[in-house]
Amino acid sequence: MTKKEIIIKEVLVFKSNGVQFAIPLKFIEKVIAAQEITPVDNTSYYIKGVIDIQGEIIPVLSLRARFKLADKDISIDDKLVIINFNNAKVALIAEESCDILTFPNEEIKEIKTIFNGLSSVKLVNGKAGIIYIYDPDTFLSKDESIEITSVLAKISQSRAV
Predict the structure, then answer these.
(1) pLDDT tens for residues 106-116?
(2) Of 25, 81, 152, 161, which alpha carbon lies 20 to 30 A from 87's?
(3) How many distinct structural domains can be found in the chain?
(4) In CATH, what number is assigned to the domain containing residue 153?
Protein backbone atom coordinates (compact mmCIF):
# COMPACT_ATOMS: atom_id res chain seq x y z
CA MET A 1 0.00 0.00 0.00
CA THR A 2 1.43 3.37 -0.96
CA LYS A 3 1.62 6.31 1.40
CA LYS A 4 -0.88 8.27 -0.73
CA GLU A 5 -3.48 5.46 -0.85
CA ILE A 6 -6.56 6.02 1.25
CA ILE A 7 -8.08 3.17 3.20
CA ILE A 8 -11.79 3.72 2.86
CA LYS A 9 -14.26 2.35 5.35
CA GLU A 10 -16.87 5.03 5.95
CA VAL A 11 -18.04 7.23 3.10
CA LEU A 12 -20.72 9.83 2.44
CA VAL A 13 -22.78 8.74 -0.57
CA PHE A 14 -24.81 11.15 -2.71
CA LYS A 15 -26.20 11.28 -6.24
CA SER A 16 -25.65 13.61 -9.13
CA ASN A 17 -27.36 12.92 -12.47
CA GLY A 18 -28.43 9.54 -11.09
CA VAL A 19 -24.81 8.49 -10.50
CA GLN A 20 -23.81 7.57 -6.94
CA PHE A 21 -20.63 9.27 -5.74
CA ALA A 22 -18.90 8.83 -2.41
CA ILE A 23 -16.26 10.71 -0.47
CA PRO A 24 -14.40 9.32 2.54
CA LEU A 25 -15.86 10.81 5.72
CA LYS A 26 -12.52 12.24 6.80
CA PHE A 27 -12.84 14.85 4.02
CA ILE A 28 -16.42 15.91 4.86
CA GLU A 29 -16.95 19.10 6.83
CA LYS A 30 -20.74 19.24 6.62
CA VAL A 31 -23.79 18.93 4.38
CA ILE A 32 -26.05 21.97 4.07
CA ALA A 33 -29.23 22.90 2.23
CA ALA A 34 -28.82 24.45 -1.19
CA GLN A 35 -28.59 28.21 -1.20
CA GLU A 36 -28.06 31.02 -3.64
CA ILE A 37 -24.75 30.78 -5.45
CA THR A 38 -22.97 33.98 -6.45
CA PRO A 39 -21.51 33.54 -9.95
CA VAL A 40 -17.85 34.39 -10.52
CA ASP A 41 -16.72 35.69 -13.91
CA ASN A 42 -13.99 34.04 -15.98
CA THR A 43 -13.93 30.64 -14.27
CA SER A 44 -14.04 27.10 -15.58
CA TYR A 45 -17.34 25.54 -16.62
CA TYR A 46 -17.63 23.38 -13.50
CA ILE A 47 -17.21 26.25 -10.99
CA LYS A 48 -20.78 27.43 -10.50
CA GLY A 49 -19.81 30.30 -8.21
CA VAL A 50 -19.29 30.81 -4.51
CA ILE A 51 -21.30 30.75 -1.30
CA ASP A 52 -20.70 32.60 1.95
CA ILE A 53 -20.87 30.37 5.02
CA GLN A 54 -20.50 32.46 8.17
CA GLY A 55 -18.09 34.83 6.44
CA GLU A 56 -16.09 32.10 4.71
CA ILE A 57 -16.19 32.09 0.90
CA ILE A 58 -16.46 28.58 -0.54
CA PRO A 59 -16.38 27.72 -4.28
CA VAL A 60 -19.27 25.55 -5.51
CA LEU A 61 -18.45 22.82 -8.03
CA SER A 62 -20.89 20.90 -10.20
CA LEU A 63 -20.05 17.21 -10.56
CA ARG A 64 -22.37 17.10 -13.57
CA ALA A 65 -20.31 19.75 -15.33
CA ARG A 66 -16.97 18.42 -14.06
CA PHE A 67 -17.63 14.98 -15.53
CA LYS A 68 -19.29 16.38 -18.66
CA LEU A 69 -22.72 14.99 -17.78
CA ALA A 70 -25.95 16.87 -18.61
CA ASP A 71 -25.77 20.02 -16.47
CA LYS A 72 -28.67 21.66 -14.66
CA ASP A 73 -29.29 24.62 -12.40
CA ILE A 74 -29.20 24.07 -8.66
CA SER A 75 -32.59 23.40 -7.10
CA ILE A 76 -33.96 24.12 -3.65
CA ASP A 77 -34.06 20.35 -3.01
CA ASP A 78 -30.32 19.94 -3.64
CA LYS A 79 -27.68 19.75 -0.92
CA LEU A 80 -24.19 21.19 -0.78
CA VAL A 81 -21.50 18.84 0.49
CA ILE A 82 -18.68 20.91 1.99
CA ILE A 83 -15.37 19.06 1.74
CA ASN A 84 -11.81 19.83 2.77
CA PHE A 85 -9.19 19.15 0.14
CA ASN A 86 -5.72 20.47 -0.60
CA ASN A 87 -5.98 22.79 2.43
CA ALA A 88 -9.11 24.44 1.05
CA LYS A 89 -12.87 23.96 1.18
CA VAL A 90 -15.20 23.42 -1.74
CA ALA A 91 -18.90 22.65 -1.98
CA LEU A 92 -20.15 19.90 -4.27
CA ILE A 93 -23.74 19.95 -5.50
CA ALA A 94 -25.57 16.78 -4.43
CA GLU A 95 -28.99 16.24 -6.00
CA GLU A 96 -30.16 13.30 -3.96
CA SER A 97 -29.77 11.65 -0.58
CA CYS A 98 -26.68 11.88 1.52
CA ASP A 99 -26.09 8.64 3.41
CA ILE A 100 -23.15 7.35 5.39
CA LEU A 101 -22.19 3.82 4.40
CA THR A 102 -19.42 1.51 5.56
CA PHE A 103 -17.66 -0.94 3.25
CA PRO A 104 -15.07 -3.61 4.02
CA ASN A 105 -11.87 -2.77 2.14
CA GLU A 106 -12.05 -6.00 0.12
CA GLU A 107 -15.31 -4.81 -1.51
CA ILE A 108 -13.64 -1.68 -2.87
CA LYS A 109 -12.13 -2.01 -6.34
CA GLU A 110 -9.69 0.32 -8.10
CA ILE A 111 -10.81 0.96 -11.69
CA LYS A 112 -9.70 2.92 -14.69
CA THR A 113 -11.58 6.17 -14.79
CA ILE A 114 -14.82 6.30 -16.72
CA PHE A 115 -15.39 10.00 -16.14
CA ASN A 116 -13.55 12.74 -18.01
CA GLY A 117 -10.96 14.42 -15.84
CA LEU A 118 -10.95 11.96 -12.94
CA SER A 119 -7.62 10.20 -12.57
CA SER A 120 -8.23 8.01 -9.53
CA VAL A 121 -11.49 6.27 -8.78
CA LYS A 122 -12.61 3.30 -6.75
CA LEU A 123 -15.97 1.61 -6.81
CA VAL A 124 -18.19 -0.60 -4.77
CA ASN A 125 -20.92 -2.71 -6.32
CA GLY A 126 -23.16 -3.39 -3.36
CA LYS A 127 -26.81 -3.52 -2.37
CA ALA A 128 -27.23 0.15 -3.25
CA GLY A 129 -25.79 -0.37 -6.75
CA ILE A 130 -22.50 0.94 -8.11
CA ILE A 131 -20.94 3.72 -6.05
CA TYR A 132 -17.94 5.67 -7.35
CA ILE A 133 -15.59 6.66 -4.54
CA TYR A 134 -12.99 9.35 -5.09
CA ASP A 135 -10.20 11.03 -3.22
CA PRO A 136 -10.78 14.80 -3.17
CA ASP A 137 -7.01 15.38 -3.32
CA THR A 138 -6.96 13.89 -6.85
CA PHE A 139 -10.33 15.28 -7.96
CA LEU A 140 -8.83 18.38 -9.55
CA SER A 141 -5.65 18.77 -11.54
CA LYS A 142 -2.90 21.04 -10.24
CA ASP A 143 -4.01 23.80 -12.65
CA GLU A 144 -7.63 23.48 -11.52
CA SER A 145 -6.59 23.71 -7.86
CA ILE A 146 -4.59 26.83 -8.68
CA GLU A 147 -7.65 28.31 -10.41
CA ILE A 148 -9.82 27.76 -7.33
CA THR A 149 -7.15 29.35 -5.13
CA SER A 150 -7.02 32.29 -7.55
CA VAL A 151 -10.81 32.71 -7.46
CA LEU A 152 -10.74 32.81 -3.66
CA ALA A 153 -7.87 35.32 -3.67
CA LYS A 154 -9.75 37.63 -6.09
CA ILE A 155 -12.86 37.54 -3.93
CA SER A 156 -10.85 38.19 -0.76
CA GLN A 157 -9.17 41.19 -2.40
CA SER A 158 -12.49 42.63 -3.58
CA ARG A 159 -13.98 42.25 -0.08
CA ALA A 160 -11.00 44.06 1.47
CA VAL A 161 -11.52 47.13 -0.72
Answers:
(1) 778 877 666 65
(2) 161
(3) 1
(4) 2.40.50.180
